[in-house]
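[job 4471] stage=fold_predict status=RUNNING
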Amino acid sequence: MSIEKAIEIAAASVEMEGFKIDEKSREWCQLFLQGEISMEQYILLTKDKIGVPA
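[job 4471] inference complete, writing C-alpha coordinates
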Protein backbone atom coordinates (compact mmCIF):
# COMPACT_ATOMS: atom_id res chain seq x y z
CA MET A 1 0.00 0.00 0.00
CA SER A 2 1.32 3.45 -0.86
CA ILE A 3 1.87 6.11 1.78
CA GLU A 4 -0.72 8.33 0.09
CA LYS A 5 -3.34 5.55 0.23
CA ALA A 6 -2.53 4.83 3.89
CA ILE A 7 -2.98 8.52 4.76
CA GLU A 8 -6.24 8.65 2.81
CA ILE A 9 -7.63 5.65 4.70
CA ALA A 10 -6.48 6.96 8.08
CA ALA A 11 -7.94 10.42 7.36
CA ALA A 12 -11.26 8.88 6.37
CA SER A 13 -11.35 6.95 9.63
CA VAL A 14 -10.60 10.08 11.67
CA GLU A 15 -13.21 12.08 9.74
CA MET A 16 -15.82 9.39 10.46
CA GLU A 17 -15.21 10.21 14.14
CA GLY A 18 -16.11 13.84 13.43
CA PHE A 19 -12.64 15.38 13.10
CA LYS A 20 -11.15 17.16 10.10
CA ILE A 21 -7.63 16.54 8.80
CA ASP A 22 -6.18 19.55 6.97
CA GLU A 23 -3.65 19.48 4.16
CA LYS A 24 -0.74 20.56 6.38
CA SER A 25 -1.38 17.66 8.77
CA ARG A 26 -1.48 15.25 5.85
CA GLU A 27 1.83 16.67 4.61
CA TRP A 28 3.46 16.22 8.03
CA CYS A 29 2.12 12.67 8.25
CA GLN A 30 3.62 11.89 4.86
CA LEU A 31 6.99 13.32 5.94
CA PHE A 32 6.86 11.17 9.07
CA LEU A 33 5.97 8.00 7.18
CA GLN A 34 8.78 8.66 4.70
CA GLY A 35 11.24 8.99 7.59
CA GLU A 36 11.95 12.66 6.89
CA ILE A 37 10.80 13.84 10.34
CA SER A 38 10.63 12.02 13.66
CA MET A 39 7.51 11.26 15.67
CA GLU A 40 8.66 13.89 18.17
CA GLN A 41 8.93 16.50 15.39
CA TYR A 42 5.49 15.54 14.07
CA ILE A 43 3.94 15.91 17.53
CA LEU A 44 5.67 19.27 18.11
CA LEU A 45 4.44 20.60 14.75
CA THR A 46 0.90 19.46 15.50
CA LYS A 47 0.91 20.88 19.03
CA ASP A 48 2.29 24.20 17.77
CA LYS A 49 -0.39 24.37 15.06
CA ILE A 50 -3.20 24.07 17.61
CA GLY A 51 -1.50 26.28 20.19
CA VAL A 52 -0.55 23.70 22.82
CA PRO A 53 2.70 24.60 24.63
CA ALA A 54 5.59 22.22 23.97
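[job 4471] summary: The chain has one domain: 3-50.
[job 4471] exit 0
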